[in-house]
């Protein structure tokens, strides 16, 4: 069966729901440092679990006969700038725990998320290549770049079957994001419906790679189900779908809510966003395991506003 570490997070929550629907709830063990939503807690096995505690994870692996682990626990870019050492400890020690469990033969497959945050200010910003200059200038980006190096090392040296995706900013309605720089692209939809206006913490022309959560979950499950021999990248695959600016997302929202107003007040997250790419070349993912996104900005906006309206009514 499967263990999800960080199952209460923005990605973990939806990933848990999708895997339970696909494989049966009793084959998916959700875990996190804290309890999650009522539906997450009530519809399948859940364990309170600190992803930095090797023995605690090992106990859960043995008890439930876990074969594969999705490590979705991490501290994201904005929060990590406030607590560098806590971010490094969580992001790295949780990864070493699952890599070492696989090296010891206690689990046989790992998914670990990387991010466009591995790229830095001197990385080519348009159509950022799979292999290019990577000098991340954020704590989170440094932890993800280092994590990618360790994933590739454990695969080459010990045969560990670890698979990874460099997620862009993710847009979801089922779960709130936590502590990310791309979170404005979720907050804006909530504010458009609740207040009819939004003050954006990034400037209007800040173009960032983004993805609708349904696409990200499908990519995650697809790469995990792919034939190991098809995977030519064991650091982490670039993964793209769309890129847009706050001005463009506001324009799409006004197609549905004509009187929606946006204002701009950049904060410390502007420097983080400015160090990241504007668009991503994900041809390796498309060639190796058939990646193809479904949602563009118009479809994402429609889905977000419809689902958030239905949820609150
Ligand atoms: C963040 N959503 O903003 C995450 C992600 C590419 C962005 O890593 O930190």
TrEMBL record:
One of its GO terms (molecular function) is L-threonine 3-dehydrogenase activity. Residues 3-240 form the NAD-dependent epimerase/dehydratase domain. Gene3D superfamilies: NAD(P)-binding Rossmann-like Domain. SUPFAM superfamilies: NAD(P)-binding Rossmann-fold domains. InterPro entries: Epimerase_deHydtase (IPR001509), NAD(P)-bd_dom_sf (IPR036291), NAD(P)_epim/dehydratase (IPR051225). Transmembrane segments: none annotated. Belongs to the NAD(P)-dependent epimerase/dehydratase family. This is Nucleoside-diphosphate-sugar epimerase. It comes from Flagellimonas meridianipacifica.
